[in-house]
Design brief:
single chain, mainly beta, about 10% helix
Length: about 100
Amino acid sequence: MEEKRKPVNQQHRLVIENREYMEINGVVHVDSFDDEEIILETEMGLLAIRGEELHIKHLNLEQGNLSIEGFVLELAYSEEKGTRGLRGKGGSFLERLFR
């Protein structure tokens, strides 16, 4: 049975400046974060951000805004509801690519 998408209340926008600063709109929830990976739910699905020395500089869930500093290595979207969907079935895109 197919799951219906919930209606999009806000536009999702992602801006990256020099791979060192990101602004994201349409953020619903931050699932987990550390200095190498941030996993969050956006209006368009789950988003995993991987990098080095990642820091959340600003978070406002009421407005759906998030800003991140650090060196960005990889972005991966998933429509699955759990964070396992981002790593399940063979790992990340780069891990599958370099097997």
